[in-house]
Design brief:
This protein has about 270 residues and is an alpha/beta fold. It has a domain at about 55-200 and about 225-270: Rossmann fold, CATH 3.40.50. The protein is built from ten helices and eight strands. Strands 1, 2, 3, 4, 5, 6, 7 and 8 form an eight-stranded mixed β-sheet that branches. It is globular, with a radius of gyration of 17 Å. The structure holds S-adenosylmethionine. S-adenosylmethionine binds near residues 85, 88, 135, 136 and 165.
Length: about 270
């Protein structure tokens, strides 16, 4: 795996990566306890942590949700293909590992995630994984990419994963139009999986302060439950619906920290 030493700066010259600007993918790695980030990411992540002390547990609970949702789709819904937008790719527990017989396309707009993903896949992929650099705000470019169209069969069900992604796509950047565009080519029996930061239950000032830390570096918008539910409009929600991430079909594997996951809503909807 390609690593960046946190105190010494980058060990590689990352085309397109500005180490002085915090980045959501690398802040997430910090929250998950990884090592692959820059000092600017740590500084921003710590500011968020001061405002939301449970954020690192939220990140772990989010990964547990991803595992449960993909396991549900493979074991109970028979899905054999995944399009993972904003994949992030921490070092383990990724979709191709959770669903070892499925085809998986990982998409992210962060060049560093892409380099990391390609390095990871060189050892593991077995021909059933593709890695595409793309921006969720430009769904047509992703959906027209031969790595996607030539690899996934859109006549068969696909699991469209937007896990921990959409709070980085504000309404002003066309979030709803983008989700609609990704949903449009999906066959009946496909699924949309979302987890999303929410302002539900939080003090308004805290929400504004967290927004400010993120927005200094990247587009960001926490949403209400109603706003998140809109992404699923027209889909059949799988039980238990849109719930706190820890409450989506819990299987006993959890951080065990009281209140962890509060602030993240998650759901799975089926294309009728
Ligand atoms: C919090 S991480 C989530 C990673 C993974 N999906 C998970 O839930 O564990 C968010 C990821 O979304 C990516 N991202 C943010 N904005 C994006 C955009 N507009 N298009 C594609 N990826 C984006 C970031 O680079 C980062 O890797």
């Amino acid at each position: 795996m390609v690593m960046v030493m946190k105190d010494k700066g980058p060990s590689l010259d990352w085309a397109g990566v500005d180490p002085t600007v915090p980045n959501s993918a690398r802040m997430y790695v910090y929250f998950l306890g990884g090592k692959d980030y820059f000092p600017a990411d740590v500084a921003a992540a710590r500011k968020v942590q001061e405002l939301q002390p449970l954020i690192k547990y939220n990140s772990r609970e989010n990964r547990y949700f991803l595992r449960r949702a993909v396991t549900y789709l493979t074991n109970e819904a028979g899905v054999r293909q995944f399009l993972d937008i904003g994949a992030g790719l921490p070092t383990q527990g990724n979709v191709h590992e959770i669903a070892p017989e499925a085809r998986v396309v990982y998409v992210d707009n962060d060049p560093k995630v892409i380099v990391h993903a390609r390095a990871l896949m060189a050892d593991h992929d077995g021909g059933r994984v593709r890695v595409v650099q793309g921006d969720a705000r430009d769904p047509e470019a992703i959906l027209d990419d031969p790595q996607v169209t030539g690899f996934l069969d859109f006549d068969q069900p696909i699991g469209l994963l937007m896990v921990g992604l959409l709070h980085f796509v504000p309404d002003r950047n066309g979030a709803h139009e983008a989700v609609e565009a990704f949903r449009r080519p999906l066959a009946s029996g496909s699924y949309l999986v979302i987890s999303h930061g929410t302002q539900e239950g939080f003090d308004r000032q805290m929400v504004a302060d967290v927004n400010q830390v993120y927005e200094q570096a990247m587009p960001y918008q926490m949403r209400t439950r109603e706003q998140i539910a809109r992404f699923f409009a027209g889909l059949d929600m799988i039980e238990p619906g849109l719930v706190t991430v820890t409450d989506w079909r819990p299987d006993g594997i959890t951080t065990g920290v009281a209140g962890a996951g509060r602030g993240v809503l998650a759901g799975v909807g089926r294309v009728p």
